[in-house]
Queue: 2 jobs
Job 1
Amino acid sequence: MRQAVGYVLFSCLLVLLQTTLIRYLAVGTVGPDILLIWLVYLAMREGQATATAAGFFLGLAVDLLSGSDSMIGLAALSKTVAGFTAGFFHDENKVLQNLGGFQYPLITAVVSLVHNILYFIVFLQGTDAGWLNAVTFYGAPATLYTTALTLIPMFVFARRLRTQL
Amino acid sequence: MVKRLYDIALLFKEYVLFAFFAVVSIGLLALNDTPQIRSLRSLTVLSVGFMQDALSVVPNYFDLRRENSTLRELNLTLTDEVSRLREARLENIRLSQLLGLKEKGHYGYCAANIIGKTLQLLRNTITLDIGERDGVRVNMPIVSESGVVGRIAATSSRYSVGQILLNRELRVSAKDQRSRVDGIVRWEGGRMLTLQNVVKTMDVKPGDLVITSEYSTLFPPGIAIGVVNATHLTPGSLFQSVEISPGVDFTRLEEVFVITTQPDTSRTAAEAKIKP
């Protein structure tokens, strides 16, 4: 129970960070998605069901806090799919090994790409901009940025893993 | 049963959860009214329409049976309606032609339906559904849009009987419209009429229109009788025999007009004075 409350509180903190401060980390228009990093962590740690539910609520929170420009439900949908996708990589016997190894950033890259493709397909509907261009020039760099940022928690978990061994 | 469903849902809880949250997300998305969502809506409608169109080739037996039955009934109703409309159209054409005739003439006309007809006898007649109460009198001319039909031979209050051109007792003063040659039209049997009393030297050719002449005391002048079909020269005779094809098709005749304008009696009275 304490762990669940901790997850919720930490999620709220990350949502606030994502919607306020993360823009200062942006390079041009490309910024990382720390919620996806957290979502992959939850998937590795708690499994697919938790990650799917967490994806929905995190996305919904982002939708609600993003102001009038966003489409309510779009981030919820894309993060639900992201959480569900991340859940396929869950292995309860190798949780720490996966989080402390390069599996973590790799899985984040895959999940982020799926997330961005789905997001842009819906977001660019009916506009002149091609979603493939948007994914190439915005989604893919954002995926790389997010993947690179995953290296930080990965090294933290790697150190913890070495300590345990 | 519920327990079994619960077990299945628990077994696939990840998929159930995913489906639930995805549906909720899509529902929330659908509530937006942005250009993207409008575009997605139209895309969805297009896709659903395409799917329905593709699946419509799969026949539903019970629907087809009911549809067949409905279509059969509809077919019967429509066939009946088409038949009645066709009949009405033909009647309309005939009546329009009659109306045209009525508008062209300067006489009083009384429309009548033929309710009886004989065509196989030597004295053929037609029975009309109008009589004395409609102003019909003996000797009044009967015409149609194609020309002379005959004359009234007998009347009752509601009905009248007319001698038609195919009647040996009826003779009509006539003339060739082109050459103005006079003669008497009568029927001697068969399908053709004959123009009699035409001298051999007179100019009558096949194709000439034969009309009623001013000499007739029954028929107004200028009404078509028929077209010259052939001329025959009989050796030893002063006259030629002119064969006329009647303008009126008596086998198909259904409606006629009776000309109710009476002939000028003073003319007939004057002519009677000098008759031998």
Job 2
Amino acid sequence: MTIRLPRLTAALLVGGLTIGAATPAFGQEESGETEGDTEHVVNLRSRCQQAIERRLGDLNRAQARIDGVDVLTAAHENSLDAIIDSTESGLSQLSASIADEDNRLELVQLCSQIAAEYRVYLVVLPQTHLTVGADRVDAAAARGDELISTFDETVEAAIAAGANVDAAVALRNQAVAHLDIAESSNSGVAAGALSVTPAGYNDGSGEVILDTVRGDLRTAHAELKSGLKDGKAAVHALRAAIGDLEDAA
Amino acid sequence: MKRAAIIITLMLSAAACGPTETDTTTGSTTSTSVPVPDSDGPIESLAIDPGADPDLATTSTLLESTGSGDADQPTTTTVPAVSSNPAAGADDGSAEALADATAALDVLDDLLADMGSEIDGLAGDLAADANANASSGNG
């Protein structure tokens, strides 16, 4: 025999069962520890551990990058190493605390420290990239200086050979002007980036500093690109001037 | 007849002996004992009288210090050989400057490439910074 219930009645019945399953029994509420709370704590703990693992993985990649680049000064490399080491150490200790914590409210408080206390994505990784970038500007500018020095010697030889180097020298001077601006813009980038702490970011000052040095680094990048463009044009003009002499010879 | 024959014999002997004695006196110290190569003038002079000319004496020191024993090598770099043709020296300087400038162009190309490489790396740093910032969420 089949009992046929009206659809609305069946829906209410299913809904009531669902609510009943989700709602703790009266006795459980009295003890403060519910099955739902336990599940919530387990899920929260898992999510927090994953957040820490993701940050530790990104810090490892940042450390590998620091170890891999050859443009970093020793002082900057030491500073970044210290920042990453202390961040990894702090996050590992926090992970252990989270693993031991069963109280939901305590767990929420611990998990909130992952971002606010360490600022891996808003401070540590940016200051790593910005510091490496700043030292790379210096490296590129040093190449530029070497380029200009060699260019000047070549110009002297070309003049001695009888070449007209006016156009090449004018382009060379434009390249030098761009390189000077790049170096000037970059002068405070690394120090500024390394000065920011998670606490400084949280009070607002760190974000201002990072935004400023980020803009300076972008300016330096643009000026280096312009300097390279003019440098290539200068070498091209010098090659043409020397080529004219060779053709005449 | 006999007398005539004797006179003829004496005349022939005199004609044969005269040139031989002359050659012996004039040729014995020059044509057979000292080589006279035109291109090695300073070296020949050095062999005859090394102390007569300070420049040549210097050349002598060079030869001894290098120990080459080959008179042809140092003569190509001695001052007298270069200064003997100033016009040719000026031409060589110009050509040398042109060669230097041409060779330096390759070095400049390498430096431009190095600089471009660093700038590309910088673009990567800026992109990585932007990515970290974009994926930061709240922190």
